[in-house]
Structure formats: C-alpha cells, structure tokens
Description:
Mean pLDDT: 86
Helix content: over 70%
Largest sheet: 2 strands, antiparallel
Strand order of the largest sheet: 1-2
Low-confidence stretches: 1-10
Distance between the termini: 114 Å
Amino acid sequence: xxxxxxxxxxxxxxxxxxxxxxxxxxxxxxxxxxxxxxxxxxxxxxxxxxxxxxxxxxxxxxxxxxxxxxxxxxxxxxxxxxxxxxxxxxxxxxxxxxxxxxxxxxxxxxxxxxxxxxxxxxxxxxxxxxxxxxxxxxxxxxxxxxxxxxxxxxxxxxxxxxxxxxxxxxxxxxxxxxxxxxxxxxxxxxxxxxxxxxxxxxxxxxxxxxxxxxxxxxxxxxxxxxxxxxxxxxxxxxxxxxxxxxxxxxxxxxxxxxxxxxxxxxxxxxxxxxxxxxxxxxxxxxxxxxxxxxxxxxxxxxxxxxxxxxxxxxxxxxxxxxxxxxxxxxxxxxxxxxxxxxxxxxxxxxxxxxxxxxxxxxxxxxxxxxxxxxxxxxxxxxxxxxxxxxxxxxxxxxxxxxxxxxxxxxxxxxxxxxxxxxxxxxxxxxxxxxxxxxxxxxxxxxxxxxxxxxxxxxxxxxxxxxxxxxxxxxxxxxxxxxxxxxxxxxxxxxxxxxxxxxxxxxxxxxxxxxxxxxxxxxxxxxxxxxxxxxxxxxxxxxxxxxxxxxxxxxxxxxxxxxxxxxxxxxxxxxxxxxxxxxxxxxxxxxxxxxxxxxxxxxxxxxxxxxxxxxxxxxxxxxxxxxxxxxxxxxxxxxxxxxxxxxxxxxxxxxxxxxxxxxxxxxxxxxxxxxxxxxxxxxxxxxxxxxxxxxxxxxxxxxxxxxxxxxxxxxxx
Length: 716
C-alpha cells in the first residue's frame, strides 16, 4: 500500500490496539503514528471485511477528507504522506460495495483522475515509491467503483474515460497497464454512451493501439489485437464512420495481415479473425483490399479461405460444448463470408484467375457443407433453436442460398422443413414482440426483451429460388410454407403501412411478391384452391390504389401490381372478384402505374424521369405486367373501357406511329404495347371504332400488325 514498507504477518498490529491508538491521539504527530499502524493493518491479507468496517467506523470520511485535503502539516511531516495514507485507507474501504459508491467516495473521482494522469515515470527517473503506491490505490478505487452499474455511470460522468485514455495513450504514466482493462470494462456495459461523449479521445486511443499492432513483432501484438477488438466492438458503424480513421484502419489492416499470414495457433488467430470481421462490417469489403495505391486481393482471399477453414473446424466432428465455445469466432467468420458473397455478386469484379475462382468456390462449398451438416444434426432438437450459433448459421445459409442453389442441392432439400420451421418460430416471436409494443402504447406494461432475429427474412431470397423448382416447391407445399408466407406478408404489410422502418419490411414484401409470383406461374391450380392466395389478392387490390402515387415505393408497387394481375387471371369466372369495385380500382391503379412509365422523346421511348432510378429493378416487371394486362382483356369485358377512360389506347397509338429507327428496347416496348391495342380491338366494339378513328389502321400497317389490321378491316 501507499508509502508503507512491506509487512510480515508477525508485524501486523492488533485491530483493537490500532483503534485505541487512533482514538487516543492528541496531536497530529500521534494521529500520524496511529495511521501508520492502521495502514499496516489494512494491508494485511488476513484483514477481513468486518475488521475493515470497524476501521472505517473509527476513521470515517471526515478524517479521510482531512488527510486528502490538508494543506498544512506539523514540522517534520510530509504532506504527500498524509494524502498517500488517505488513499490507502480509501482503497481499503472501497472493498465494501456500499462504501465504493458512497457519495463521499464518488466526490473523490476527479482526484483519482488527476493522480493517474499526472504521475509520469520518465526514462532515467524513478518516482518515489509512495507515488507509485498512490497511483495503485487510485486504480484499486476505480475498479471497486466500477464493480456496479451505478459506479460505472459515476466514473463516466466524472470524465474518468478521458483520464484512462490519456494513461493508455501515453505509456509513460505509472499504472497505465491497469487503465486499458478498466476502460474496456466500462465500454462493455456502456459503449454507446461512452462513444457518444468521448469519441475523440477513444479515436486517439485506437490510433495509438493500431500503430502498436502494426509495429509490434512479439506476443504483445496479439494482446493489442484483443484490446482493439474489445474497444471497437462497443461502437456502432454510424459512430465509426464519423471518425477520422484514415490512418488507423490502414494500420490495423497491416497488423492483421501480418498476423494471419504467419504460423500461429488458435489463441492468436481467433482475435485477429474477429477484428477482421468487425473492420469489414464497419468499412465494407473494400477495407480488405488495403489502402491505396497498393490495393490487392491477397488479404481478402486469405480471409475467405481462413474463414471457411474455421467454419469447418468449428462445426465438423466437434462436440456441443466445443462448438459453443467456438461460436463467437465462427459467427465472425460467417459475417465475413456473408459480406464477401454479397460483394462478389453485386460489387465490381475481383479480377480473379480461373484457379483462384475454383479454389474460392470449393472453399465456400466446403464451409456451407459443414453448415448444412451442423443444422441437419440439430434439426429435430428445438431446444437448440435459441442458440446464437444456430441463428447465425441459418442467417449465413440464407445469404448463400440467395445466390447459389445448385451446389449442395439435395442437402438443402432435406433441410428445407427445418429452415421453414425455425423461421416460423422466430416469426411468431416477432409477432409477440409487436403485440407487446402495441400493449405498451395502450398503457399496458411491456418488458424490454431484445428484438428477436427475423430469420425468415434472411431465408426469403433462397425460398424465392426454390419456389421456381418443382421438387423444392412440393416440399414447401407439404410443409404449408405458403400459409406461413401469407401470414408473414400480412405482418410486414402492417409494419410497412405503419412506417416502421426498424424491420426493413419493404424489401421483405418485395421478395415475398416474387415468391408468390412463382407459385402463381408454376402451379395455377394449386393457387386457385388455397384461401391464402385469395386473401392475398384482396389485400393487393385494396392496398395498391392507396399508394400508387408514392413513387419512393415504386419497386414494391410494381411487384404488387404484377402479382395482382397474375392472380386475377386465376379467377375469370368468379364474379365476386371480377366484377368487384376493388378489382376495378386496382386495375385503374395498375394502368396509372404502367402508363406513366414512358414518354416519347426525340423519336424514342424514354423512361420518364421519375422512374429512371428504378428502371433497372422494374423493367422486367413492366414487360410482364403489359403482357398480363393484354391477356386479361378477354377475361374482364369491362377492362377495355378503362383503357379508353385513361386515354392509354391513344398514347400507345401515338407512340407506335412516332417512334423512329427503334432500338431493341423500343421494339420490345412497342411490341408489348401493341398487344393491348389488338386485344381491345378484338373484344370491344367501342375500342375498335376509336382505334380506327385515331389512325389505327395506318399504324397497324406501318408496324405490320396483321391481327390488328384484320380486326379493324371488319369495321364498315
């Protein structure tokens, strides 16, 4: 302890003697002598909590405050010694949780901050041992205070984070090695709060540590890697993006590259992989290419292969306890693989040679073979569903299936019932969460459980692929997946219309439309027989007219429009649907949506300005929708009148007559549009007359539309 010589067990005074000496002291000199006895006592490891409490009751905060704040002492006494003894006693008393967070203790936190950030140990100089002890006592107080959530909040409010960062950044401060673990402890429970208020000093600390990660070449390199991960993992991507990180992210890249291409063991590799995953999550795959101008794919390919190896090692031929212990690093590898798959399918070309591509694909297949094997092994044990590793495995498999369905096909077919079952279970947890949130809005008490993972959301792209295949679609039907997805559509529609952006419902709804389109196209008789499709059709018909003018939702609107048209054509003889006002309002909304997509400009069909940002995503839907509308005309006799009402027949005729030297896209647009003219002329007398009056015969001859020519020539 501060300023006290090492004491053997035989030298430890009796507590009663100490207390008696303290109480009977009549001068500062006698008090000082009594306190020296007390400090010997509190230093002894054999001193129990009861004894320490007795000492505190005798000393009290009033006496401690005198020791810590005194400015005048008797001749021959050292003022620093009084402060040292006071801190020694306070460090002892802080072992009592009640005293550690006592207002009198908290009031001294600024003093602790000052001590740890001013006691420098410069090269060639040795500080007095009492100064070292004083710093150690301050850290002992810090750790005692930080043992409780309330104590941590007090340290954060009293700027201890700044003092700790200073001590960590400038290693010349005595006790700096104790500062970093304490700072990480504070961050672990209060990361968002600390990053919000102390982002600048934390950024300086990460800068300092990352430089060490780059420069160190011994065991300290791995320790620094651990620390950087512990600090950065408590931040958010939004916070990191606001920091001036141009230097330290490059340092971390170099340090991790050095680690991962070396011959190291699991203990050293795990934190490096986890930090790599975190950096990619924060900065994107581009970070793995390294800072310009020396960017290359070496580190990225290394990360992919190491991740695939770790996934296999963590899942194959391992016992449950071993898998659980490796779940954190396996999940980090999942994260890297998922982001890399996304980059490879939607980002710029990696310019890999054929050998690299083959090796990469082989590594990924091996990893996902391990994932499917693991999930198959736990598929019949619902007690496993809640494990983070199971959730992470389903999520990463969803990312793989969104892009690759040919590899491991039979394994995935066998796994489909499990995937839909676990997706269903988590979906119902989400619904329950939503119900609780509604109850809370109405004044009913709701708990603060974390939001469940929407696993079904991650599986949707893969399910969309599988509904296009007969075998997998049958498996899905046998497991009533269509009913689950109908319920899921309603759930996300509720969130979407409530403007709840937390659940990313618009993307989910768009993918669901694709799934139901596949059902409708591939198995129309099944669609007719299932009530879930009829309920979905009713929702589409009543909902699209309400949001057709919301261009920010254009992609979803087009998906809903085309799906609705496809499903309407399954019910031509159902007067309840075909003659309803909601159906007619739906068709009017569809016409408004499709009619406003193109305009004539310089003799060509141009996508209107408002739709240009969305055209790459809706062009195929536009082509499908135009075809479906033309095919729907014979089924719904009232439909041609609606085309007349919206002047679309006139617009189509004008477009056909004015396009000059049509491009391939012009030709496709004109061909599909002309089908509407032809069908309207064939099935409605008023339309035939109108088309002829606006010069339809000349247009038909110019475009060589033989069927339309024949229909119009029937009019006398």
